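Might you be able to consider the sequence and fold that I enclose below?
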Amino acid sequence: MAAQRLSKLQKWILEHCFRVTILLDRALLKPLKNCQNYSKCQSCDMRSMAFLERNSNNDMVAGCKESGEACRRCCFYKEDILQNYFQLTPNYTKHGFSRVIHFHDSPGYSKAHVTLFRSLTNLKEKELIYTWRFEDESLQINLTDKGIKIAAELIGINDYFLPTPLTDEECEAIRQKSKREYSMAIAAIKAQVNP
């Protein structure tokens, strides 16, 4: 790990991302009320209701056993860092079906945002994390397999569950299945619109 020089913030990101996305534990973080089903999500026990699996890109994702959809509480967000590491106060506004979190009014936001952006960019360059955003939702931060190993070392955990990586053929089969499902869903919508 000597080759991996990490700042205090970068270590914090790796450790907390590991706790949320791999150990399925948000206990050390203040609640983020970013989900339209937040009150329902808050009452569920993440460890018993969520499961880990690999997606078509061989990335680790958490799903909800009850709904079968992605578990939003098992995601680590940029806002988690702004609220918990930088101690900024969030403001919530309703946007469609979800809540949007803003920190623009918080003192120190500009400095925190620049520092966070640099740290995330550096972690991406080291191939320890990847980030993604779906439409207007919050930026999600996920660990790569390399990042998972380093985060586990930082925390001192050796015993954790990871689904076996998929082969290229298995990834392609998942992609094809998703394409078929999307095509069928679009066809069903078109049939309802144009009977």
Observations:
- The chain has a mean pLDDT of 81.
- The CA atoms of residues 156 and 181 lie 41 Å apart.
